[in-house]
Design goal:
Helix 1 packs antiparallel against helix 2, helix 1 packs parallel to helix 3 and helix 2 packs antiparallel against helix 3. This protein starts with a helix and ends with a helix. It has one domain. By secondary structure, it is mostly helical.
């Protein structure tokens, strides 16, 4: 039961963080490109790589807490379904170049962020 509660609480925290970051980034950069979703996916990927390794290889963390952070918080924070919809909307809106740029940036930056996070977790502690 603790696992489900940790996921639920983590999910709430992650969703709130995603919403706050989206509002903030859209107020700074506007809405002509999905900057907020891109930034959230890259940051979430970095945190996933870092915290996955940290909580598995470096730090002693209760299993329910690890799942609450990785599945709950980061699952609520990252926005892959939003990324897919925004890509579709760019393509349907005739912005194929922006859509392709978004797909490439999202994948390259997010995977790179996960790798950097994992490496930093291995060398940092």
């Amino acid at each position: 039961m603790r696992v489900y509660l940790a996921i639920a609480i983590g999910g709430i925290i992650g969703c709130w963080a995603r919403y706050a970051m989206t509002v903030w980034l859209q107020s700074v950069y506007g809405r002509d490109f999905p900057y907020a979703t891109l930034a959230i996916n890259v940051l979430g990927s970095f945190l996933m790589g870092f915290l996955f390794v940290l909580t598995l290889e470096r730090a002693t963390v209760e299993p329910y807490l690890r799942v609450g952070i990785l599945t709950g918080v980061l699952g609520g924070f990252t926005t892959f379904s939003t990324y897919a919809m925004e890509t579709l909307l760019l393509a349907e809106g005739g912005e194929l170049g922006k859509g392709l740029l978004y797909v490439v940036l999202s994948n390259v930056l997010a995977i790179s962020a996960a790798v950097v996070g994992a490496v930093l977790a291995r060398i940092a502690l």
